[in-house]
Amino acid sequence: MNQKSKGYTVQEATKKIESYCAYQDRCHKEVVSKLKDMGMIPLAVDTIIAHLIEDRFLNEERFAKSFARGKFIIKKWGKNRIVRELKFRNVSKYNITTALKEIEPEAYLTTLDDLAHKRLLQITETNIQKRRKKLADYLLYRGWESHLVYEKTFELIK
Which positions fall inside the RecX third three-helical domain (predicted)? Predict the structure, then answer.
């Protein structure tokens, strides 16, 4: 029997989703999507979500905090990109604000500086304006705030 046609009881689905959530923090949107893919009806989805929240398998604030920390530390994303990705996952404004507090201001600026220096070494363009544009585009794409990006770009490329 293939995975698509397999039906799950609420208990089976609950156990499967518990391990899915225990493996790493998940947002509500991911869990609902997974349950729908498993063929669960809306009433069962609601019941399972309520159980997961009650038993602390699902906690959106915890998810948002770990997401923000992880994307900042590992992928070196700026706050704009983190906010955009969390909004895409339907995380509440309150939880997004709380998650951004996980990022230390000093570490944030140090990371921007390191990222900008590293990227600048990779840019072979000789025209000053084009170098600035390439560096700025790279940093903006990664979600760094424009005022910080332009400040750093003009600081590094004179």
Answer: 107-151
Residue 114 exposed, middle or buried by CB count within 10 Å (0-12, 13-18, 19+): exposed
Give the model confidence (pLDDT) of 98-152 as tens digits: 999 999 999 999 999 999 999 999 999 999 999 999 999 999 999 999 999 999 9
Do 113 and 97 meet the contact criterion of CB atoms below 8 Å apart? no
- What gap in Å lies between CA 14 and CA 46, rounded to an integer? 11
**Measured between alpha carbons, how far is 72 from 51 in angstroms, rounded to an integer?**
31
Cβ neighbours of residue 71 closer than 8 Å, sequence gap 6 or more: 77, 81, 82, 85
What are the b/e assignments for 25-55, b being 16+ CB within 10 Å? bbbbebbbebbeebebeeebbeebbeebeee
Residues 48 and 10: beta-carbon distance below 8 Å: yes
Helix locations, the chain, DSSP H: 10-23, 28-37, 42-54, 60-73, 79-88, 93-100, 105-122, 128-141, 146-156
pLDDT-derived band at 158, boundaries 50, 70, 90: confident
Amino acid letter at 141?
A: Y
